[in-house]
Every structure is written in C-alpha cells, then in structure tokens.
Amino acid sequence: MNLDLLAIAAHPDDVELTCGGTLLKMAQQGYKTGILDLTAGEMGTRGNPETRAKEAAKAAKLLRVKWRGTLGVPDSDVQPTRQHKLYLAAVIRQLRPRTVVLPYWEARHPDHYHASTLGYEGCFLAGLKQLPLEGEPFRPFKILYSISYADVRPTFVVDISAQYRQRHRAILAYGTQFGPNSGSTKSKVFLAIDRLEGQMNQLARHYGEMIGVQYGEPFLQKELMKVDDVVKLEVRSI
Ligand SMILES: [Zn+2]
Question: What pTM was estimated for this model as a whole?
C-alpha cells in the first residue's frame, strides 16, 4: 500500500485530537491517509483495549482513513528501543507514506515525547538497506510535527473549518473517554481528559483565528517552507 499521509501517535484518540481535521481534509482531496496507534491505550483510566479498539475503528471511518493499525507497544512504556523501532520500520516499509505526522518532541506525557523519537527513528531506519527486515527500503519524504499539545509557534496552520464538525464527531466516538463520567466521581485520579475535548476545541479556534479562519490545526516542520509566488501568499498582515 502506498499512503500519501500517515499520522503516528502514542494512544488511540491522540490523532483525532491533534490532526483529525487535517487527515479528513486530505482524504477529501483524494489522498490515501492512515493512522498508526503505537499502543492500544490499555493503561487509560477509563475503558479497556476492546472498547477502545471499537471506538478507534469508528473514528477512523468518520475521518475516512484507508488504514488504521496498532503497533503493539505497551501503553505508558513507549520507549524508542531497537525492537520498537524495527517494528515501526517494518510498518513504514509496508505503507510507504510520503508524509508522516508525529507528535511534537516535548510533552508532559512521556509516551508523547517518546512517540516522537520512536516515530522519527523508525522512519529513518526503514530506509536502511542492510536492516534485517522484510520489504523494500523506504523513507518518508516529509515529517511534520503536530503541536496542538505543545506551547510552541507552528510553522503553518491547516484550515479545518469545513472539517471541524466531523472531527468533533470522531473525537466523540471515544465514548469511554469523553462520555458521561458515570460512577467514577469519587476517583482520586484527576481525569484531565474530561476537559481535554473542550480545550482542543478552544485550540482549534485559536489557531484558526491566527490564519483568519474559524478553525485550524497547527504543525511544525524543521525545514524552511519553499515559496515560489510571494504575491499570492495567504493570511492578511494588516
Ligand atoms: Zn496520548
């Protein structure tokens, strides 16, 4: 399979919350998209791997992705080990994505920053000919970092105003995470996730505002942007 765009993240629902609108927008433009969840989210305070897998499949359908898979790395232990990198490199060789979206490399949750390193190094290894792995060597052309969780300035913002409602539905597909908090009100664990959805909506509004549209998703790339036509540049200055 040759994917145009693959989003990699630590837990099911990370992708929906950070770049779901962009995935849907690219699918609507005819690109083949995919999601690779590194873990099954089995350490989540709510739900279990079975229900989360069902929710992830439903969300994938809503975002029109062609492929979704789980790498099988243990939740809360997303380490960039040699073994995990080889697993990931094998998937990259199989899917051959032109562009890969990774989480930003600094985060509060160790799984998120480790997912960033594991993702980058797995993509790099996939291109090494001498690797003891099946499949043709392959390296993605472009790596983008999703920075919705991070406090850094993005390189660009994707206008997802037209995709926003469907992205919202995909997030709500995770009923165990975002549904009514039944029976666990006495829990001493602070479920930040209860507020996460609202916070993400606010972020999409904030980044949309920065490019003069209703909703946006922010990304960062390490390379500079190449521009051919400075007259037709978008986003008003004054
Ligand atoms: Zn996560």
Answer: 0.92
